[in-house]
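#struct-help
A.M.: can someone run this one for me? Single chain, 231 residues.
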Amino acid sequence: MRNERASILILAAGTLAAAATADYTGPIEVGYEVTATDFGGGSITAYVVDLYMVSNDAADTLLNVYNWNTVDAGVSFFQSFTGTGWQPTNLGGPFDTGALQVADSFVTIGGFGADGRQTPGSGAGTGLDPNFGGNNAAAPGVDAGWYNGSPPSLNGSVLTYDNGITGTLIGRFASLDGGFSLVCSSFEATWNQGLGTPGQQAGFFWCPSPGSLALMSVAGLTTRGRRRSLG
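D.P.: on it. Structure tokens below:
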């Protein structure tokens, strides 16, 4: 049984440099609170921020994210006891906990189901570039990057998720320290439309002004939803 209350914040995306045919239009941040059971039966409550790259073309396939630089969120990122770092990992069996599925911090180039849960096999093949700082880093380093290490898998293909977002999941950041945001982060990305098709690249920076956020709220682009509870 799952009860859910999520706050979805659609953030303005500024394209720094993009080809005229670019179909990934920018990032969306989805923030919500989740309560779940970790290994050993203990319960955790975390604030979770999911990041997506939004696309208007179902044929798009994301290949990598690089030169990632984020603001100091002022929190420590949580990783489940049975998780093994920033690369998505679910060993299944007794290690497959609620906290691992919905509140573990990781980066990915898609490869998840529509519900976004980190089930066994989700995000397999995600690699970290040297600037990331290693799988066990406290947070992505300066100019961090991650990529689909097995392009034939097409993990980065566009998907419509259960929350209504159409695009590619690129990361989950969770903290036990309360609410936070990754607004004013910047990065670049590469994508194509499948094996043998030309790649496209663009830079993205999203940092809405307070006035813009107010207008977005008035326009109904900032919505309040449900709280998740998973045993």
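A.M.: thanks! Confidence is low (pLDDT under 50) at residues 1-20, 211-231.
D.P.: also worth noting: The chain has one domain: 6-230.
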